[in-house]
Amino acid sequence: MITDRLDLDQKITGDFDANIAQPLNIRVSYPNAPFERPDDEPWIHFSIVYGDKLQAEFGGPTRRYRTPGVLFCNIYLPLGLGTARIASIAGRIASRYRDASRDGVYFETSTIGESRREAGMWKMTVQCPFYGESLE
What we know:
Helix content is 24%, strand content 41%. It has two helices and nine strands. Strands 1, 2, 3, 4, 5, 6, 7, 8 and 9 form a nine-stranded mixed beta sheet that branches.
């Protein structure tokens, strides 16, 4: 069970760091953390957007609440380095968070968006919808 939004943040961020960032040796721009953008290698902008907490179960002395959200991973690659590496990174993220439970966070169907040029970089976005449940 998830205790609060901070708990959700820590579980998702910790799993991402341990299973994506470290094994791929890729720099990640986490919210409100120092970051220096590399000039010659891929990097990821990591963000979590939450929806409103909703009551999922009624009755009884405790109630179950569900907090939905989406993990956005914007992957950037300098122009001219091809698309294979960015597609591989996106595939790894989507596979990790597709229809899976990770430390009490339930991920639904991940999607990989179109790739495009943005701010002198090549960008591809992976969206991973999820929810966490709490008892109150």
